[in-house]
Amino acid sequence: MAHRNWLTAGALCAAIVLAATFSALRPGSADGQAMMLPVDPTPLVAVTGSGKHSFSIEIADTSEEREAGLMFRKDMADDHGMLFVFERPGEVNFWMKNTPMPLDLVFVGQDGRIKAIKRGEPESEAIISPGQPVSFVLELKAGTAAKDGLADGDVLRHPAIDKAAGAGSN
């Protein structure tokens, strides 16, 4: 009986060591390194009064990815962003702790329409919220939203957004 208990304890210890090892292999916010997600093959398109603007995006659609976001990133291309996808529309709160670059936060409803655009200041712990339920948040390099003419009511098109918009119309 004692032998079986030692085997069980040994297997449990091995599982814990393996889990710790594999979690340490993926850089992320816990270790002070920027999380890099794959760039989605389909660009996000913003349809604005000044025309269409395309962005290459990373998609953060798990709670771990949304928590890490663009923390620790020092730079990003003007035509690049991160799309945060939430399971259901709701109030969201962001902050810029551990984020050294200023950002535009574009809050988007389930229908793909921009609800609000807010500025995120580097390293700030101030809460950034649109004050209404949203399904998505697009983070861009600060100034990009104004430069490309993004405004409340404009539409963002991407398969992840279109999927949610279709689900909302059923």
Automatic annotation (TrEMBL):
<dbReference type="Pfam" id="PF02643">
    <property type="entry name" value="DUF192"/>
</dbReference>
<dbReference type="InterPro" id="IPR038695">
    <property type="entry name" value="Saro_0823-like_sf"/>
</dbReference>
<protein>
    <submittedName>
        <fullName>DUF192 domain-containing protein</fullName>
    </submittedName>
</protein>
<feature type="signal peptide">
    <location>
        <begin position="1"/>
        <end position="19"/>
    </location>
</feature>
<dbReference type="InterPro" id="IPR003795">
    <property type="entry name" value="DUF192"/>
</dbReference>
<keyword id="KW-0732">Signal</keyword>
